[in-house]
Amino acid sequence: MMAQICEWAFDGIPLKTGDLICTKVGNCRGSDGVVSFFIGMAIPGECDHVAIYTGPSGRFIEARPRGVGTTVMGARWEAHEKFAERGFIDSFLGGVSPLAAKNLSPEQERNYRLAVAAYCEAQVGKPYNFNFPDPETEERFYCSQLAYRAYLTVGINLNTGLNNRPPYLPDSIVFPEEIWQSQPHI
């Protein structure tokens, strides 16, 4: 497990280890991009992708069509420059912190942040989960499912229900938009 909490800012938004990065996929170049684009089109709301900031520097972990992987970006969101690595291009919307307003002691917050990051690190290399109604599996992950499972390790449930969930989609799906809507923005 990491021994320290890292801090970084993307496009001026300050993040700490364990905070969630919320984006909107917008380019469909290549097969991974097409998959991401169509998944994004089916997802209600503004946010259709979530990644977990782990640090150090601009390092984060995300589930993408190629599977769970790490990416390092600079101080600005460099989606075009990272296309070959990630397989899609997205726009940075902002960050959310599921630990904000939880009245945690500094030690608890530190331990929760490190536990979330350690969980995500342990999933790197696992395949993408195209079975969206099954967020309980830990064999494969979609983006918001990875954040959901990581935060369950510290007793925080991110599957809070999407306000504008289409009636034909199961309640079990953890949408990026519900994380974006329900968690405190940074």
- Enumerate how many helices there are, as a single number: 5
- Give the structural class: alpha+beta
CATH topology: endopeptidase fold (from Nostoc punctiforme)
β content, as a range? 15-25%
Low-confidence stretches: none
Query: For the report, how would you describe the main beta sheet?
Result: 5 strands, antiparallel
**Straight-line N-to-C gap:** 25 Å
Walk me through this protein's architecture.
There is one protein chain. With about 190 residues, this protein is α+β, with helices and mostly antiparallel strands. The chain has one domain (about 5-180): endopeptidase fold (from Nostoc punctiforme). The chain is built from five helices and seven strands. Strand 5 (about 60-65) and strand 6 form a beta hairpin. The radius of gyration is 15 Å and the shape is globular. The two termini are about 25 Å apart. About 40% of the residues are buried.
Summarize this structure briefly.
With 186 residues, this protein is α+β, with helices and mostly antiparallel strands. It contains five helices and seven strands.
Task: Walk me through the topology.
Elements lengths: L6 E4 L2 E4 L3 E8 L2 H13 L6 E5 L5 E6 L2 E6 L10 H4 L2 E8 L9 H18 L19 H10 L23 H7 L4
Antiparallel strand pairs: 1-2, 3-4, 3-7, 4-5, 5-6
Helix pairs in contact: 3-4
